[in-house]
Amino acid sequence: MSTTEAVTRDAESDRWADVRDLPPSAKLVAKVLDYNETLSQSQLAEETLLPPRTVRYALTRLEDADVVESRFSFSDARKRLYSLKV
């Protein structure tokens, strides 16, 4: 393994350090947000196939760990959009 590969692998593992001890649902939501830049709670429920209540719990845990950020949707102010910070 080259030095560059080792540094990349270490950076990737450090990136997920805050997520490692969270519940599986939070890890899944974080990974889906990693692949999709910004999603609403309902979109996350569709993508993860998790119930909306579980997605809400996962997002709360991720916000408490300061891993995701949320903002209001400009197209629908009733919705919040979530994106990964790590």
Can you walk me through this structure?
By secondary structure, the chain is an alpha+beta fold. It has a single domain, classed as Orthogonal Bundle (Arc Repressor Mutant, subunit A). It is 53% helix and 15% strand. The protein has four helices and three strands. The chain has helices spanning 3-15, 24-35, 41-48, 52-64, and strands spanning 38-40, 68-72, 80-84. The chain has a three-stranded antiparallel β-sheet. A hairpin with a 7-residue loop joins strand 2 (68-72) and strand 3 (80-84). Helix 2 (24-35) crosses helix 4 (52-64). The longest helix is centred in the first third of the chain and has 13 residues, at 3-15. The chain is globular and about 45 Å long. The two termini are 25 Å apart.
Unreliable residue stretches: none
By helix and strand content, what is the structural category?
A: alpha+beta
Q: Main sheet?
A: 3 strands, antiparallel
Strand order of the largest sheet: 1-3-2
Please, what is the average pLDDT? 88
Count the E strands: 3
CATH topology: Arc Repressor Mutant, subunit A
Compute the separation of the termini in Å: 25 Å
Question: What is the H/E order?
Answer: HHEHHEE
Protein name: MarR family transcriptional regulator
InterPro entries: ArsR-like_HTH, HTH_MarR-typ, WH-like_DNA-bd_sf, WH_DNA-bd_sf
Domain HTH marR-type: 21-78
Secondary structure elements and pairings:
Elements: H1 3-15, H2 24-35, E1 38-40, H3 41-48, H4 52-64, E2 68-72, E3 80-84
Antiparallel strand pairs: 1-3, 2-3
Helix pairs in contact: 2-4, 3-4
